Amino acid sequence: xxxxxxxxxxxxxxxxxxxxxxxxxxxxxxxxxxxxxxxxxxxxxxxxxxxxxxxxxxxxxxxxxxxxxxxxxxxxxxxxxxxxxxxxxxxxxxxxxxxxxxxxxxxxxxxxxxxxxxxxxxxxxxxxxxxxxxxxxxxxxxxxxxxxxxxxxxxxxxxxxxxxxx
Length: 166
Hints:
Number of helices: 5
Structural class: alpha+beta
């Protein structure tokens, strides 16, 4: 089975939106495919995020779009994505990215796709002069934590993070 990672473009917004909807459902949000697609489309149109998409060859055991609801693109099925939000560090006076969303469709997990997405994000950040990528994950998500740490992410021990819901 072949996997490839590439930067998503506006033409990918429906498929990324579908995966984004599944991602939100994973976090106990109500399904809303149209709102998810619109959200992704707006981020892309406004150049407000960088999205990398994972594609897997259609020769896999999972068949075609009729069997699993995934669109085929040049013989590849959209199986995962990572969304990065550009920001800046005042102290470092440079760009940083927030890795906000990482998702792989359940049928394609444990195949190294999430790792490839993380590696591609790191490579693209390096090429674009990004100083660092930050992320957060649930305290109970030990599997994700192990993946992040194996890819060089380190738990912050200098700062406490706070949130204010408005």
